[in-house]
């Protein structure tokens, strides 16, 4: 039994669910910690009398930290292994979420939120890599979709915390942030039982350890073939097996790097620009109270979570490409409607926001994790996910920092056209570059995508380009 066959083994179903659940818990914390600041900001503005610029910096500090964490620790997980960083990053969660809750001024809060963002950014490449590498071929999309859905769950809980702790006065925002540290402690303890990825061990030449891990999971150690060691056929995709020294900017992987970075960047400009200011937009358009805006925002997040669950049911049936294009197109249309309608009722705005988040999550919200996890080989997977997340954080920071200033100068209604334009650009990018990876072995996807731009004198192998597997 080969490595891929062992990981597709039905006996691993329960274990795969466990890995997905623990990775999903990390995404829950990401969604909670990045969104809870949106709930806390109205309270902080009144308590500390902070300016619009400081508000934007407070909102974006964790996103800036995510850029650092995704790039640095994403590459680190390729070097020292998935498991070591898998638990360590949650220690950073606990420490800096707690310190942020104890901040005495905006400067301290911004600094601790930045450091918290490093931990959040690190969890994306680690959790995505582990979940991808332990998933069965036929259900990989579903597992990563479930993982993505918990970001929205965390965001929804963050909005609800605004209601739960809302009656505690000036200290209410501190309890909201401290709640995130408590959740991280629980998840960190549970993650200790997850072993190292056999695919990563094999890519490092540690085939004996990979066989030992699999033997402990399925009861018998598999034989590890040459094709299992870090990639597929060595003759494919430029004639060399991927190595730990392979570059994301090499000819072989440049197309994948450009696509995932551009995709993540465009999606996050819209997603975070709207998501982190949902209460602000709801109250700004409709004139609703802060509490009603929090309730409406929680409803939007709940519908968004349903979008990812719907996507998880369709991603391995319909495929990646059609869901991505359809979701982005619907999101752009809904944003256009919101930009065109003047002074709509509160319920209408909530409905449009909810439908827009549902559309964003049913396809593109899932694929921002799934595509980077699939398009890069094992020795580069953590780094590939890391740079895509980093590119997304640049887009998120732009959306978060630019949007408040556009509202001040152009008004809320006109400012929404920026997100419409970015949404349309994401649709165009996906039409031309989004691949279909449904039902294909993880080891062969990177080679096939790279073969679309073969090196001079080497034609892409049509037999491999059309090969896939349905899995058990």
Number of helices: 19
Please indicate the percent range of residues in DSSP E strands (runs of 2 or more): under 5%
Shape, please? globular
Gyration radius over CA: 22 Å
SS elements, strand count: 0
Task: Give the ordered list of helices and strands.
Answer: HHHHHHHHHHHHHHHHHHH
Q: Quote the distance from N terminus to C terminus.
A: 13 Å
Note poorly predicted spans: 226-240, 453-472
SSE-based structural type? mainly alpha
Mean pLDDT: 79
Helix percentage: over 70%
**Sheet of most strands:** none
Describe this structure as you would to a colleague:
This protein has 472 residues and is mostly helical. It has 19 helices and no strands. The longest helix has 36 residues. The C terminus is likely disordered.
Q: Outline of this structure?
A:
This protein has 472 residues and is mostly helical.
Topology of helices and strands:
Layout: H1 3-7, H2 13-48, H3 52-80, H4 82-101, H5 106-134, H6 140-164, H7 172-190, H8 198-203, H9 207-218, H10 254-275, H11 278-286, H12 290-314, H13 320-340, H14 346-362, H15 364-375, H16 378-410, H17 412-433, H18 442-450, H19 462-465
